[in-house]
Design brief:
Blueprint: H1 7-31, H2 38-71
Helix pairs in contact: 1-2
């Protein structure tokens, strides 16, 4: 098992992987002709997207948590 102190990093890794997979898959699907090689092009786009998404999530998650705390009622 992974120690709990790595939870935020693991969360960011999983979230960025899933979101970049969805976004790059949809974008690639919309941009391609039906006969083109969707899987290999989508995988390349996903890996590039994940490279940028992971650090973005690491930076954005604490800001999002603070925004949610400010915008929600306590109690």
């Amino acid at each position: 098992m992974i120690p709990a102190r790595y939870g935020p990093v693991l969360f960011s890794l999983i979230l960025s992987g899933v979101m970049s997979l969805l976004v790059s898959g949809i974008s690639t699907f919309r941009a391609l002709q039906p006969q083109q090689d969707f899987v290999s092009l989508s995988a390349g786009a996903w890996l590039t997207g994940w490279l940028f998404a992971f650090p973005a999530v690491m930076l954005a998650a604490p800001l999002a948590r603070k925004a949610v705390a400010l915008l929600t009622a306590r109690g």
